[in-house]
Design goal:
Mean pLDDT: 94
Shape: elongated
Strand content: under 5%
CATH topology: Ferritin
Structural class: mainly alpha
Largest sheet: none
Number of helices: 5
Radius of gyration: 17 Å
CATH superfamily: Ferritin, core subunit, four-helix bundle
CATH architecture: Up-down Bundle
Low-confidence stretches: none
Helix content: over 70%
Number of strands: 0
Distance between the termini: 26 Å
CATH class: Mainly Alpha
Number of domains: 1
Amino acid sequence: MAATRFAERLNQQIANEFAASQQYIANAIYYDAETLPRLAAFFYQQAIEERNHALMMVRYLLDADADVEIPGVAAPTTGFDDAIAPVALALEQERRVSDQIAALMGVAREEGDFLSEQFTQWFLKEQVEEVATMSSLLTVIKRSTASMMAVEDYLAREHSSARAADPTAPPAAGGAL
């Protein structure tokens, strides 16, 4: 069974992951409305990934015989000043989630909850990738504000193929629908 303090923090992180998912949907909608389909598709996919992260956490708590709470989340930001703002917000969000996951790992370690610590390791690895992806996208979008089609081309070139499922990823509740 997961340490009580870890389970409480993981339930809080579930809310953070669902909030991230909703924010990415809002980002996608912004780009959809701006007729930037690759950016929209990129963020719709990111929303699914964040939702699945929350469901992985739900599955872990269920498997660890811990209580699962699905906390409410604040409404996402939906108004953006320009095409850069959603990506800048996404990078800020990924950095914040990285800090949250690192703190979660710290709780598991403090509690001597080695199983929860091991579970958290995958998310730390994932966050390195997420921050790098958003950082690169922000660099490209800042460089390409005069021609957003260059960003669309970048995404088509660098992020068009579906990523293979990570065999080391924790299972998700509902089988990552």
